[in-house]
């Protein structure tokens, strides 16, 4: 790899806890959160017909799989690196020095939140308990579950993965029960009348509204999101099994998720009582199915518990994956106190990255008032990642060029160029959709009462601030101060390795460069 990047840790100080079982449930928990239980009806509303909705769910799967293919090629090149995006971007864009790591680190620290899972957990726990829902009840439960996940991830990495595995197993059993129930419904074995009617004339009502189709595509793609979390733990897989685990097993799990989605959607459609009922159900399509099939409050409570546990499992995947990404930012040396970000003491975990992830999520969960401000902050968090995705796909081409110049061949996986181009075009499309006015000509956003593209403008402003900071820190101040930046290698007690960015006076640069190699070692 490029010497300018964070140094490879010969033996991973976080251990090797990612086996086939943990990888399976990491993908399951990363992708299957609450989306599949909430979005099928809104997708159907947007696209207009059952047949067209299936086309979108298939297209969303293909896009997700293509994205996974790109990650796999990166993983075959950098088998000992954790962090996913941050490590791959660092290797793809070594020049200008520190630019991409600085921007990624700043955006990751500022926007490292996934409060939607915590809020969803609180919402469904309240629903299952028959309590009166209020914003602060939801947030209070959200704080409790955030704290629990943060403590577990910070103190015991094996326990956090085992809990994720257990929750994933419970989720899979419940999903299997729902799907089997769907087959019973289709067979006429329940109280639901005419379960096949919704599939007749499946293409009737298909919309030609470009905005509605685009929104439906984005909703479907969000439901397939989360495939990247497992790639943040590549370095924690058994080095002898890493290539086969990621080349063959992970795509297989993504295919399984696709089959689960198609079967769940078919189940919800069959038990909903007709096309009009599905469209009216909104985010309650799964509850409508349970009500129609079982007709008891206990059944819908069981569903609420499942969705809450699903949100908890997703939150665990987020904390585990994101803490690894932030640790890689620290190892690159662009964050203050890099050794604190890098160390795994005292629990064998990336303690400071976990704490930062927790604090940022806590602030986003509690600080903004419910409504516009909260939705606005969450929208920024979602939108900010799309730009790095495009850089990642373009970066794969740069990595290939670097490897070719070094005389290195593909390492067992090669993504065809058309797949890379499709990935780039898709994320350009998602970025552009933020600027398309809402239906009806209103300039207000769908979830805020002010200008619909404010979150997109703010996100771009944050990126421009990061770039401006970089040029001030890396170019202007050193020129005024008469020094240059250099990286120094360090090695900690448990085998942790990283870089520190230091200031070297201009008249000492030549001596420093003679005494250190490109990776900062003496």
Tell me what you see in this structure.
Strand 1 and strand 2 form a beta hairpin. The chain is 65% helix and 3% strand. It starts with 19 loop residues before the first helix and ends in a 7-residue tail after the last helix. The chain has a single domain, classed as Up-down Bundle (Amino acid/polyamine transporter I), CATH 1.20.1740. Helix 4 crosses helix 10. The longest helix is centred in the middle third of the chain and has 36 residues. The radius of gyration is 24 Å and the shape is globular. It has 522 residues and is mostly helical.
Short description:
With 522 residues, this protein is mainly α. It is built from 20 helices and two strands. Its main location: membrane.
Task: Give the tags.
mainly alpha; Amino acid/polyamine transporter I; 522 residues; two-stranded antiparallel ribbon; 2 strands; 20 helices; single chain; globular; 65% helix; 3% strand
Note the topology.
Elements: H1 20-31, H2 35-38, H3 40-47, H4 50-77, H5 85-92, H6 99-110, H7 115-128, H8 135-155, H9 157-186, H10 210-223, H11 242-271, H12 275-281, H13 285-294, H14 297-332, H15 338-342, H16 351-366, H17 372-405, H18 417-433, H19 454-481, E1 483-491, E2 497-505, H20 509-515
Antiparallel strand pairs: 1-2
Helix pairs in contact: 1-9, 1-11, 1-14, 3-10, 3-12, 4-10, 4-11, 4-18, 5-17, 6-14, 6-19, 7-8, 7-14, 8-14, 8-16, 9-11, 9-14, 11-13, 13-14, 14-16, 17-18, 17-19
């Amino acid at each position: 790899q490029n010497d300018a990047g964070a140094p490879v840790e010969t033996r991973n100080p976080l251990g090797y806890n990612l086996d086939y079982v943990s990888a399976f449930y990491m993908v399951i928990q990363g992708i299957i959160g609450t989306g599949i239980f909430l979005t099928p009806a809104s997708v159907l509303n947007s696209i207009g017909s059952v047949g067209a909705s299936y086309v979108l769910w298939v297209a969303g799967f293909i896009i997700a799989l293509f994205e996974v293919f790109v990650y796999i090629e990166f993983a075959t090149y950098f088998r000992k690196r954790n962090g996913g995006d941050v490590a791959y971007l660092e290797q793809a864009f070594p020049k200008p020095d520190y630019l991409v790591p600085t921007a990624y680190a700043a955006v990751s620290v500022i926007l490292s939140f996934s409060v939607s899972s915590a809020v969803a957990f609180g919402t469904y726990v309240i629903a299952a308990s028959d309590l009166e829902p209020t914003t602060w009840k939801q947030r209070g439960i959200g704080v409790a579950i955030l704290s629990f996940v943060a403590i577990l991830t910070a103190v015991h990495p094996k326990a956090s993965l085992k809990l994720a595995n257990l929750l994933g197993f419970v989720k899979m059993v419940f999903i299997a029960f729902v799907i089997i129930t769907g087959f019973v419904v289709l067979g006429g074995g329940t109280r639901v009348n005419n379960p096949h009617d919704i599939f007749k004339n499946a293409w009737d009502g298909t919309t030609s509204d470009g905005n509605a189709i685009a929104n439906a595509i984005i909703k479907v793609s969000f439901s397939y999101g989360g495939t990247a979390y497992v790639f943040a733990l590549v370095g924690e897989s058994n080095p002898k099994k890493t290539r086969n685990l990621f080349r063959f097993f992970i795509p297989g799990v993504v295919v399984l998720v696709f089959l689960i989605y198609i079967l769940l959607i078919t189940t919800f459609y069959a038990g909903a009582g007709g096309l009009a009922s599905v469209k009216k159900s909104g985010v309650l399509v799964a509850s409508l199915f349970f009500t129609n099939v079982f007709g008891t409050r206990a059944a819908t409570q069981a569903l609420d518990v499942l969705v809450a546990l699903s949100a908890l499992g997703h939150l665990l995947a987020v904390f585990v994956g994101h803490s690894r990404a932030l640790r890689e930012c620290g190892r690159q040396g662009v964050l203050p106190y890099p050794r604190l970000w890098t160390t795994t003491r005292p629990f064998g975990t990336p303690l400071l990255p976990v704490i930062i992830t927790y604090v940022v999520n806590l602030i986003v969960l509690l600080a903004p008032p419910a409504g516009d401000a909260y939705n606005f902050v969450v929208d920024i968090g979602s939108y900010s990642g799309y730009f790095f995705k495009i850089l990642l796909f373009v970066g794969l081409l740069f990595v290939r060029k670097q490897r070719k110049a070094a005389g290195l061949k593909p390492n067992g996986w090669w993504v065809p160029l058309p797949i890379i181009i499709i990935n780039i075009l898709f994320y350009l499309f998602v970025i552009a959709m933020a600027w398309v006015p809402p239906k009806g000509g209103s300039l207000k956003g769908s979830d805020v009462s002010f200008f619909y593209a404010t979150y997109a403008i703010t996100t771009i402003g944050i990126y421009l601030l990061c770039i401006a900071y970089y040029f001030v820190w890396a170019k202007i101040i050193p020129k005024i101060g008469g020094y240059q930046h250099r990286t120094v290698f360090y090695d900690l007690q448990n085998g942790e390795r990283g870089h520190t960015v230091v200031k070297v006076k201009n008249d000492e640069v030549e001596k420093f460069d003679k005494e250190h190699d490109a990776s900062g070692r003496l």
